[in-house]
Amino acid sequence: MTRFDILDQLVERGNGYLCTSQVIENGISKPTLADYVNKRGMRRVAQGVYLAEDAWPDELYLLCLTNSKIVFSHETSLFLHGMMEREPKDISVTVKAGYNASHLRKKGIRVYQVKPETAETGVMNVKTSFGNTVRTYDMERTICDILLYKDSVDVQVFQYAIKEYMGSSHKNLNHLMAYAKLLKIEPVVRVYTEVML
């Protein structure tokens, strides 16, 4: 198997994306990567990230590739779970407090910072509409987050999400209440669940 064959496989597995870090992990040099990118007509979409010319750009996946510490949250998480009627205007992410997110804010991304001990609570992998895997919060954590920040969430988005969650056969009210307790919003969550049940 040639080096180009290995790179072809990496591109196929990455849904058209290729990262310099993967190339180096596979023992292939940067000059070979540059030659491959040039000959395959790939384009650089971020530092160390290339996209095949016939692949669909996936903004959420690219953001994950270039920012491994982020977790999609709030409206973006609602969208990934199919709990929103339309794509959100802005991308929302959550990071641990202390993470320097100024580069994300400059791109117009809404950044929420949380205590390190709650940052990974409810994290799961989901597929974007392009079939790429990204990190987001599960439905229960997302519901807690939108209740926590309900003043900054569009009323229709908020109501639709609560209705969709409560009507879902995949909801887990035990997880919801456990997260609510951890995030210190148990009374608020209890009010909404009692009204909707």
Overall SS class? alpha+beta
Enumerate how many helices there are, as a single number. 11
User: Ranges with pLDDT <50 over ≥5 residues?
Assistant: none
Order of neighbouring strands in the sheet with most strands:
1-3-2
Structure summary, number of beta strands: 8
Overall pLDDT, averaged? 94
> Can you tell me the overall shape?
elongated
Tell me the domain tally. 2
| SSE string | HEHHEEHEHEHEHEEHHHH
Instruction: Please indicate the percent range of residues in DSSP E strands (runs of 2 or more).
Output: 15-25%
Compute the CA-based radius of gyration. 20 Å
Q: Strand count, sense and closure of the main sheet?
A: 3 strands, antiparallel
Share of helix, binned: 40-55%
The separation of the N and C termini measures: 59 Å
Write a compact overview of the structure shown.
The protein has 197 residues and is α+β, with helices and mostly antiparallel strands.
Structural key phrases:
about 200 residues; alpha+beta; 2 domains; elongated
3D architecture notes:
With 197 residues, the protein is α+β, with helices and mostly antiparallel strands. It folds into two domains: 3-57; 68-196, no CATH class. It is 48% helix and 16% strand. It has helices spanning 3-13, 20-25, 30-39, 59-66, 74-80, 102-106, 116-119, 139-148, 155-167, 173-182, 186-196; strands spanning 17-19, 43-46, 49-51, 71-72, 92-96, 110-114, 123-127, 133-137. The strands form three sheets. A three-stranded antiparallel β-sheet has the order 1-3-2. The termini are far apart. The mean pLDDT is 94.
